[in-house]
Amino acid sequence: MKLSSALIAVSFSLAGFNASGAALAQSLPANPCESESSTYAQSACLDKALKAADGELNAVYKKALELIDKDDMMSAEQHRNWKQALQKAQRAWVAFRDADCGEPVGYEWSQGTGMGPATLACLLQKTRIRTAELRQRYLER
Predict the structure, then answer these.
(1) Within 10 Å of residue 80's Cβ, how many Cβ atoms?
(2) DSSP E strand boundaries for the chain
């Protein structure tokens, strides 16, 4: 089980480097479930963390959409187009995240028992990165 935890921790770290660069990945919290000793416990912990991260992402995304309307440099039509573009990008990102953390992760883990926690860790890391990206681009500008 320790090897499984170590591999998930490594894949958790590497997911951040591949997705958005070293600086952003290093600013994210570490795998919150690294100390869990069983695959079941890791999965339960990661599922809980993913639900929390999804909630945070949705809140930041909603604020980003609200901030677009407050931009006084654009017309109502430009606001509408910008929001539609962000919505389209977000839907594409969700599809990418789910696809990238789905079947490929299963094959990386040879469809073994570590696949579940590894998939959840991948989803969690990508969700945290996207939240940080949206926060940086919209809320901190």
Answers:
(1) 13
(2) none
Does residue 10 or residue 95 have the better pLDDT?
95
Q: What is the dihedral of CA 141, 23, 105, 49, to 10 degrees?
A: -60
d(Cα 74, Cα 76) in Å, to the nearest integer? 7
Q: Report which residue type is found at 125.
A: Q
CA distances 140 to 7, 61, 64, 129, 135, Å, are 34, 13, 10, 15, 6
Number of domains in the chain: 1
**What is the tens place of the pLDDT at every residue in 18-35?**
444 556 655 666 677 888
And the tokens for 13?
């770290």
Q: Which tens digit of pLDDT belongs to each residue from 35-70?
A: 878 889 999 999 999 999 999 999 999 999 999 988
In the three-class reduction of DSSP (H, G, I as helix; E, B as strand; rest coil), residue 1 is classed as coil
What's 106's domain CATH number?
1.20.1270.180
